[in-house]
Write the C-alpha cells for this entry.
Amino acid sequence: MRFAFLLLFTAGALYAQPRARDLGVPFEGTPGPLNAITDVAGVGVGHTTLVLGSGALVVGKGPVRTGVTAVVPRLGATDPVFAAWYSLNGNGEMTGTAWIEESGQLEGPVMITNTHSVGVVRDAVIAWMVENYPEFRWALPVVAETYDGVLNDINGFHVKPEHVFTALNTAATGAVPEGAVGGGTGMICNGFKGGIGTSSRTLSSEHGGFTVGVLVQCNYGTKAGLHIAGVPVGREIKGPGLCVEGDVPPSRENLRSLPTCTATNGADKGEDGSIIVIVATDAPLLPVQLKRLAQRVPLGLGKLGSIASTFSGDLFVAFSTANNGLIGREPATVTMWPNDRIDPLFRATIQATEEAVVNAMVAAETMTGADNIRVRALPHDELRAILTRYNRVITQE
Amino acid sequence: MRFAFLLLFTAGALYAQPRARDLGVPFEGTPGPLNAITDVAGVGVGHTTLVLGSGALVVGKGPVRTGVTAVVPRLGATDPVFAAWYSLNGNGEMTGTAWIEESGQLEGPVMITNTHSVGVVRDAVIAWMVENYPEFRWALPVVAETYDGVLNDINGFHVKPEHVFTALNTAATGAVPEGAVGGGTGMICNGFKGGIGTSSRTLSSEHGGFTVGVLVQCNYGTKAGLHIAGVPVGREIKGPGLCVEGDVPPSRENLRSLPTCTATNGADKGEDGSIIVIVATDAPLLPVQLKRLAQRVPLGLGKLGSIASTFSGDLFVAFSTANNGLIGREPATVTMWPNDRIDPLFRATIQATEEAVVNAMVAAETMTGADNIRVRALPHDELRAILTRYNRVITQE
Amino acid sequence: MRFAFLLLFTAGALYAQPRARDLGVPFEGTPGPLNAITDVAGVGVGHTTLVLGSGALVVGKGPVRTGVTAVVPRLGATDPVFAAWYSLNGNGEMTGTAWIEESGQLEGPVMITNTHSVGVVRDAVIAWMVENYPEFRWALPVVAETYDGVLNDINGFHVKPEHVFTALNTAATGAVPEGAVGGGTGMICNGFKGGIGTSSRTLSSEHGGFTVGVLVQCNYGTKAGLHIAGVPVGREIKGPGLCVEGDVPPSRENLRSLPTCTATNGADKGEDGSIIVIVATDAPLLPVQLKRLAQRVPLGLGKLGSIASTFSGDLFVAFSTANNGLIGREPATVTMWPNDRIDPLFRATIQATEEAVVNAMVAAETMTGADNIRVRALPHDELRAILTRYNRVITQE
Amino acid sequence: MRFAFLLLFTAGALYAQPRARDLGVPFEGTPGPLNAITDVAGVGVGHTTLVLGSGALVVGKGPVRTGVTAVVPRLGATDPVFAAWYSLNGNGEMTGTAWIEESGQLEGPVMITNTHSVGVVRDAVIAWMVENYPEFRWALPVVAETYDGVLNDINGFHVKPEHVFTALNTAATGAVPEGAVGGGTGMICNGFKGGIGTSSRTLSSEHGGFTVGVLVQCNYGTKAGLHIAGVPVGREIKGPGLCVEGDVPPSRENLRSLPTCTATNGADKGEDGSIIVIVATDAPLLPVQLKRLAQRVPLGLGKLGSIASTFSGDLFVAFSTANNGLIGREPATVTMWPNDRIDPLFRATIQATEEAVVNAMVAAETMTGADNIRVRALPHDELRAILTRYNRVITQE
C-alpha cells in the first residue's frame, strides 16, 4: 500500500453539494445567506480530510478515513469569545471545558477529529498558538471527537500535527463543505453516511437581527430511530445502512453481524456514535446565556429521534462573537441581550441544529472503508418520496 | 361569594377520561397496564383540586383554579429512593434539589402546585412528615410548581395545609386522573387547556422487564409551536386557544390583548408557562444513572415543539423504587443496572414524556377562569383529522 | 405560657456587641468601615428575632428561639443583581436557585430562617413583592435555612408572614446586629452559641477599590474541630459547649446524652448544623465570576476546621450590586472586571467568610432554650489566652 | 547539547526522602503504613522523570524538567472504578471528565503531566490500552496537568509516548517517590520547589476501617500565602523562593522581575500554578458520594492558604476501589457506605490533602532549570523553628 495521503483542502469549490432543503425537506425559520455557521461574521471553518487505501483493516496501515475540522470563532484575531458548553451524554471528549466553564470564555479554535486523535490535535493547537498568538504563555485547547473506527483505522493514529495546521491555516469564511470531510470524514449518522453539516438562522430586526449558526459532526444514532420533519423515515427506507462488500466479514468481532451489501434487509448498526455541536452567534450573550443555547441543542436532536445513547458523546459548545476585549487587565464593557427576548435565539438554535444534521446526511456520499464496510448515503429520492407520503415535502415551483 | 372549596378527591372513578392513543395518536413503545406512572409498583398519586367561583379577578377572593398533586415514591413506606434532577430551564422552583443532588436520594413525596403556593405546601409536607415518619428530625421537601395565574387568583394564596394533607393521604395506586386536576387544575399547555398527564413504558424481559412511568404538570409552550406525532398540529388547528368570554377585557395588563371567544383568529398566549416532569422507574439505577433519565426528558419535549422558553420552569426529577434500605447506619447492598444496557430506559423515558404531555391535553376540558378567560380543550376531532391528513393516525379496527 | 413574641427590631443600637478583632484575633486584609456586608453600598439587612418562653419542649407552644433575617441587595430598588450560588453540602434548602443558575440574576431579597419555616417565608416574600414590586407577575424567592431545633420548638412553626414583612421593612444599611438575632437566633456554631455574623474587606484602588461583604448564618460544626487563626481552640477550651440545666434530660431521644451544665466534660454535639453564606460585592462581576466567589467560601471555612459534614446544609450565594438595568427588553451595557485581576476578590471573600463566622460566635451570648438546653457563648477571655499561648494574638497598644 | 534523557525509573529505593511529619509538623488523623495513596490496596503509582540540560531556554532544546506520573486504580486489572471529579478552579485540563461525570466511572489510569503534553499522554494511554485491555474499542483517558514552563522548556514538547508507557508499566504499590519526580518534576508549590506529594488516613473499625489516600501534583500558590499547621510560615521564611542564578535575566518577559539568588528579598512568583489532587479510597462509595470527597479537597487547601487563583487549574478526582464488576451486561451488586457515616471519610480526605501538599514541598529539593531560574526547597530547619515559635511543632522523644 502506498502511504501518501489524499489531502483535500476543502476550503475550495465543493459547495455544489446538495442540501436538505434542496430536496424539499421542510424546516422552520429563516436561514442566512450561506445557511452555514459562517453566516456568523468572522467565523471560519477549515477541514483536513484524510482518505487513503482500501480493503482489510491493518492497524497502522489503514484504510484511512478520518480528518480534522477547525472552527475559528474570530478569523484573524486572537481575543477570546464568551462561551459555554453542555454535555447531553458524556461518552466523549471535549478538552478545554473546565476553563470554558470557569471563565465563560473560549480562547482559541474549536477542533473536531476522531476519538483517538484528540491528543495529537490538542498539542498541535498549542504548537500553532505558540506561533500565532501574541505573548502566548499556555493554552487549554478545545478539541472534540467522535468515533470513526468502523470505517477508519482509528488505532493507526493517522492524524498528524501538520493536518491540524492545515485545517487551521485554511479556515475560511464562505460556504462550508459538508458530509465526509474534515473530522467528519469517516462518520456514520443515524445509520447512513454522515459527517459535517451546518445551518444557520437569522432573526428579524425586531428580534435583534442576529444570526445563529450551527456546525455538527454527526456520528450518532440508528437508522431505526431517524425522523426527518417528524416523519419516521429511517424505518421506511428499505435495506441496510451499513453492509459489507464481498464475502469476507469484518475482522472485528463486534462488526461481524453486518449484512452483505446485496442483502435487502439487515440489522441496524448499534448506538456507538456521537455528535458534536458547535453553536455560534453574533448576539451579545453572556456565558450564562450561552449555556442556555447549548442546553437547547437536545430539543433539536429530539426531533430527529435521538435518545442520546449511553455510547454517544453528545457534547455541545456555544459561543458569541459579539463582545470584544474580554482579556487583559482593563475592565470590559460588554453588551447583554435581555433574557426576556432570548426565546428567538433558542428557537434558532434548535432549528439550525436539526437542519445541520440533515444537511450532513444529505451531503455525504456512500463510502467504503476498512474491511470493505460500506456506509450508504441517505437516498435522496427515497427520502423525498417518503416525505411526500406524509404530506411533509415542500414542492418548489 | 360563598367561600367553600369544591374538593375533588380524585383517587376515585374518573378514569373514563379519553386518552391520546384512544384518538389514534401514534406513539412508540409499549405502555404498562395503566399507561401511568402508577405502573411502577408502589408509586401513588393524589390530587387535591380547588375550583371555586367565577368572574372578575379579585385578589384573595378568586376565582380559584388551582390545587396540589402528590407523587409518593413508596406508598406506605418512608425509606428513601435513589433520585436525581435536571433543570432544562430554571424559571421555576423545585425545592429540595440541593439534597437530591448531594445525596442522590429523595426522602419523601414530590409535590406539585402553583408558583405562589410552593411555600405553604413545603411546610405542610414537613408537618405531615412529623406525624407520619418515624424518628423524624428534619426534612427538605421536594415541591415544584407551574404558574396558573392566568385562570387562577394566584396571589390569593388559596392552597392551604389541609389541601396538602388530603393529596398525601389520598395518594393511591391505580389509574391517575389527568387534565385539570390537582396541581394541574389551572394550567395551560401548548396553548390549550393542560394540567396533569401521565404515561408509562414497559420493557421486554430481554431489557430487564422494567417499567418507566412519567407524570407531568404541563403548563408550557404555545399553540403555534405544538407538534404531535411530528405533525405541526398547533398551527393547523383553527381559532385561538385562549379567549375572553364576553366583552370585558381581563383586568391584567399583560392579558388585555386576548381575543374574544367569538373571534376566529387571535394571538397566541406567550411562553410564560412551565412543565414539571416526574420520572419513576423500578429499574435499579444509581443516582448518576437517574440523572441521565432526567436529562432525556428534553428529547421528548423537543418532539412536541418545546423551545424551553426563558419564561418556563422546566424542572425534572427521576427516581427509582428498586433499591431499599438506603438510610440508616448499615452499609446498603444495592443493584446497579449496567450502563451498557440503559438505552431502552432512555427511550422509554422519552416516549412516556411525549405521551404524558399529549395525555394531559387530551384529558383536559375547556375551562373558564378569572376575568372570564377561557382556555379551550384540544379539539379531539380536529386533531384526528389533521393527523389523518399527514398519514399519522392509527386506525383501529 | 403567655404567648406573645418579643420582637427585637434589630436595626437599632445594638452595635456595642464585641467583635472578633476586638479580642485580638488576627485576620488578614482590610475591613470596611462597618466590617459588615453593609459596607457594600445599597445592601440592607433586617432581622426579626423571636424569643419566647422557657422550659420543656411542647410542640407548638415553645420555647421559641428563632427568627428571620433579610438581606436586600439594593435597598429601595427592585431591579435584579447578577448572582450565582454554590452548594458545598446540600443538606439544606435555598429556594430560588434554579433561576439564579439559569439567569445569573437574583431578583429580590435573600432570606434566612429555620429549616421548617422556609415555606412560610417564601410565600410571604411573594406577598410582600406583590405589594412592593412594580408590574409584578410571579416570583421565585430565595430563602435559605439552618436547623435550630435543638433550642427552638421548630415543629411549632412559629415564624409567621408578619415576621417576614418586619425583617424586610426594617432592612437597613449601617451596622448589623450579630449573634443570636434574626434567622440566627437559635443557632449553634462550632459547638458554641452562633447565629448571624458579618465582615467585609476593601481592596486598594490598584485592585479596583471594591468592597466584599459577607454575612453568615452559622450553625455548623463541632467544638472539637474549631480552629481560629489556625489554632485548635475548640479542643483547648474546657468544658462542654452544650449542656442541660438541671436534672431533667431533654425530651428528644437524640439529645439525651447531653451533659449537665455542672459537668466539666461532655460529648460534643454532632454535626447536624449548617451554614448559609451570603457574599456581596460592588465589583462588576458577571454571574460566571460570582460563582467563583461562591466557590471560594469553602477555602475560608476550611481554615476554621469545617469538614462540610453530611448533615450540614452549606449553601452560598454571591451577588454584585454593580450592574444595573439587567431586566426589561433593552440590551444592557454591563461592566466586567477582568479575570486576570479577580484574585484579590477571591482573597477578600475567603478572609471575610472566616471573620464573619468568628464574629457570629463572639457576638452570641449564652442561650437557654427548649428542654433547658443551654448553649454556651464562646468564652472571650479563654479564647484570648489560648491564642496567646500560640503566639497568635494581636496586642493593641 | 547532547539530547539524551535521564530517565529515572522511580519505583525504586527513593523512600529515604524526609517527610513532613519527620520534621514535627502536626497533622490530625492516623496515616496508613506508607502514608501514601498506595495504602489503598491495589493502587499503583509510576513516574517517568525527565531532567536534561541546563542554561538558557532554547525552545525545543531544553532545559528539560518535566515528566509523567501514572496512578493506576487497580494494578493488574482493567475493570472500572466508581469515580467523580470536581473543579475548584478550571484553569487547567483534566481530560475524560465528561465520561466520569456521566458514568460515575473511571475506566483506566489517571495520568499527570505538564500543560502542553496532555495530548501526547492521552493518545499514548490509548495506544497502551489497545495493547493491554481485552476487547478494547475506544477510550477516553483521564490526563491532568500543571504548568512547569518556568523551569522546563514546555514548548519543546519533550514528553513522548515511551515516557507514558514507562510510567504505566512501572506503576507499583509500595512507597511513592515524592517531590520533583514524574509529572511533578518541574513544579513550584507555594513559592518553593514542589511536585508530587502523597498521604493517607486510616479509619478505625468503628468507622469502617477504610483507607483514604491522596496524591497531589502541587504547583499552585504563593510563598506569601503559605500556612502550615495554621502558621503563616510563608511570610516568615526569609528570602525569595525563586531567583536567577547569575546575572542574566530570564529570556521570558514575565519572569524578568525575578530577583537574583544573592538577594535577600524579592517579589513572590505570581499565581500561575495549579494543583491536581487524586483521592483514592477502599470505602464502598457511589459516584455521588465520591463527588462529595472531591468537593472536600478545597477544605484542606484552604488551611494551607490557597485562594484557588484564577490562574490555577485546581482539578480533583476521587475514586473507590471497593466495588468490582461495574462493566459488562450483567447487573452489578454494589455496596454503598451510608451517608450518615461518611463524615470520617470527609475528614480523612481533608487531612490527607493537607499533608500531601506539605509532603510534596518537604521532599522536593532545590532545582535550577531553564534560564538558570532556581526554585528553592522549603527550608526544613527554618520551618521547624517557625513552628516552634508558634507552639505548633511536635517534639519527638
